[in-house]
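Lab notebook, bench 4. Still working through the backlog of constructs that have no structural model yet. Next entry is a single chain of 289 residues. Request: give me the structure tokens for it.
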Amino acid sequence: MYLLILLGSLVSASGWAQLQVLDDQGNAVILEQPARRMISLAPHTTELLFAAGAGDAVVGVSSYSDYPPAAKTIPRIGDANNLDIERILALQPDLVVVWGSGTSRRQLDRLQSLGFKFYISEPHTLEQMIASIERLGVLAGTTPVAQDSADKLHDRLDQLRRQNSGQRTIRVFYQVWHEPLMTINAAHFINDAITLCGGVNIFADLPALVPQLDQEAVLLADPEVIIGAIAKGQEISAVEAWRSWPDLQAVRLNNLYTIDADLISRPTPRLLDAAEDLCEMLAQVRAKH
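Model written out:
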């Protein structure tokens, strides 16, 4: 990744306008000059662009792009499944940043047929999230800002690794949603945060990225900890429903935890905030024994 950023710098210094990086699906993204009119098709890609120092070049965002606060003032272009194609055309973007698994294939095909250039974002780990900031900085011509953001994030990530290295592993059930009951597998970025903190995702081996489960599967797996996201304004977390099964290890040990959905549900710099909270939760669990 550093080689790509260095290459982008050398090309500019030698008078060539072309910029090139690989996106998260391994596609080469080539621009003749830094992107100056970008559209973001997902809330997490909006955050990544701002982290890369490219916020001023973002001219359109998806409906739920609410962070950082400056994103709220940018024109809306619909959501990943219902884009306002006419508005996108009017905004004349030179780069569209797409959520790979969250944007419908039909919408992508339509945009591609109109000749737009894409960067497909699909970070599965904290390291990949940081690398995304570096790459987007190359495409936006904001490498110094992006690299500074990435360096600070790497420092925090390295600190969490040092703090949690060698700790007792804890079997974790992460609850994405309750009706239907949903969790994550090993390829999800939340799994990476759990692993960073010395946890083991009890459903890591399931094939789907966000698999559906029944309650029996959780009861049979008998996790030591259950963690669920809680949204702003939500007073009671759905994880509290597990108290109906007092013999479940996580209930018996009073290891039911909630985490801020805004922090943990997007692969952005704020995911490190969530990871720090998650590591503290697992440290509390270890301290009980």
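Notes after review: The longest helix spans residues 143-164. Residues 1-7, 9-14 have pLDDT under 50 and may be disordered. Flag for follow-up if needed.
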